[in-house]
Amino acid sequence: MSNLNSETSIPMPQTKPLSDDSTHNLGRRTIHGGAVVFGSMLMQKLVGLVILAVMARLLTPEDYGLLGMVFAMTMFLQIFADMGLPLATVQKADLTQSQISTMFWINLLLGVLLGIAVAAAAPLIVYFYKEPVLLSVTLLCAISFPLVALGSQHRALLQRRMAFGRLAVSEIAGLIVGGITGITMALRGYGVFALVGQQLTSCVTIVLCNWLLTGWIPGMPVRKCGTRSMLKLGGYLTAFNFVNYFARNLDKILLGRFYGAAPLGLYTRGYSLMMFPIQLVSGPISSVMIPALSKIQHDLPRMRAVYLQVLQMIGFISFPLMVWLMICGNDVIAVVYGQKWLAAAPIFKILCIVGIWQGIYNATGQVFMAAGRTDRQFKIGLFMAIVLAVAFALGIRWGAKGVAISYAAAFSIAILPYLAYTYATVGLRLWVVLRSLWPSLAAAVGMIPFLWSVREFAFTQWSPVLRLFCSFLTAGLVYLLFSAMINRAFLADMSNRITAHLPSFLGIHFTKEPII
Asked: How many helices (H) and strands (E) does the chain have?
């Protein structure tokens, strides 16, 4: 067996606790991890954007809508595929080989059972949507469940080690192999099956790479090896994911059921593009901060200081970015997807209102996981799911645009109580967070009328690509100007954090005694 907390393979007994030296040079390792994850995420997003742009031109909105119908159903069962056990592996302070091996076999058993359940449900999905082609699509998608389960604990081990370089290799390899497969199949006229082939080959590649890069082979499962606390943490996380599924997919289910594949395809492409920059900002931070904060979970002042700085950086980047996307939505859609997708632009711009707070919302999971309080995460997730479900039910009457409007309105209302409850988990008050985010939010809102005026009257005769480029530069300059006017000290602090740690992107300022 390999030592799961080091980069080298050291044989050790199954029951021996794993030495955890991960707090050694944690500040330097977190900064380095942030640099690697951000670089990897940036490369993935750029490569993924190219693949998406090519496939969007080869396929139709109906193709994406058909896959969206199946995903809306299969992703519900995907919630139960790992029971939150990989993140429990990352979070647990003391870990043994027998615990991880047991978690691996539990994950694999769940994956096989859920794959069978999806295959059995294929006729029901066809009946629900009245689309015969969904039978084959669903049966193929069922294969992904055991495939994902085979690699879930291996990925968790790499994340626990903070071996983000190795994770980057497997994820980028999966993206490239999947993209090549999807484009090849799309060129040969496979339609929606090109999207399925892309997902399956990407999954296989990632699993193979993670097995090779961890060098870990699971042993036999062991009863009474101390996994009960991990199962409890993972169980509440699964319960949260269960209710969060409805908050994230009920809109798509309703659109597919009542309006068909084409409107659903427009909505899902708008939603996906809105989430693209948010995932680029918050994804790397989440990957690094969950294992880092877990190591200092018993030092709440230290944890709060780190987390608050992370939120400041997320807001500083995501607030103006989402405002720019909202104002320039038509050009963004035209450049990324092509002119035939312009009907998605109004939906995209409305969803960008959700995106303004989405980065901050995504970072709430770090609090619950690091503190080991996924029970609180489930409770507040249930609240958000109910709010959004009511909103979607009211908005579906007016189609995709109505759903987007109801989503933006409900999310904007519910986000503050959601954040207040989340931060109370670690004794962080909401007003402290809002005070730290205020300069960035005010500067981003202040640039709206100026950017809209320039966009509407100054660049009207230019090509969409040139308009987008010039509006981006204009937005950046206006945002920095407003930031300096509102709080020059805050702008200087943000600039110092970024320049001090490029290309780490995390922007956490370390003194002689680092806070992590």
From this structure: 19, 0
